[in-house]
Amino acid sequence: MNNTDYNDQGAFDAGNNRFVAPVAGTYLFGATLLYKINSSTNARMRGRLVLNGATEIRGSRGEISGAHASEATALRLQTMVPLTAGDTVELQGYFRVADGYFAADHTSFWGCKVG
């Protein structure tokens, strides 16, 4: 993540690109990854949210496996997860079959406490 638009509670650690839960509770997370062509529109774009750097958060994984339109194809992820204070959540995106990259100015990651 290149920029932080809103971080009033300081929960996003920009140096490590991850959300750090300030208190225990249920959190809602989401992300948008926008595809930008590198060499082929046949790349398989995947994304997921990861808890504490190791565990994929259930319901957060997605893939777009059809041909992509550069700067128009987006993968959106959303899920809820219970966290304890200090737990971290990070966005991971990657490609298979062919390479590409995520448009930094149009890729977002967000989280908020809901319960």
TrEMBL record:
<keyword id="KW-0472">Membrane</keyword>
<keyword id="KW-0812">Transmembrane</keyword>
<dbReference type="Pfam" id="PF00386">
    <property type="entry name" value="C1q"/>
</dbReference>
<feature type="domain" description="C1q">
    <location>
        <begin position="1"/>
        <end position="115"/>
    </location>
</feature>
<keyword id="KW-1133">Transmembrane helix</keyword>
<feature type="transmembrane region" description="Helical">
    <location>
        <begin position="20"/>
        <end position="38"/>
    </location>
</feature>
<dbReference type="InterPro" id="IPR001073">
    <property type="entry name" value="C1q_dom"/>
</dbReference>
<protein>
    <recommendedName>
        <fullName>C1q domain-containing protein</fullName>
    </recommendedName>
</protein>
<dbReference type="InterPro" id="IPR008983">
    <property type="entry name" value="Tumour_necrosis_fac-like_dom"/>
</dbReference>
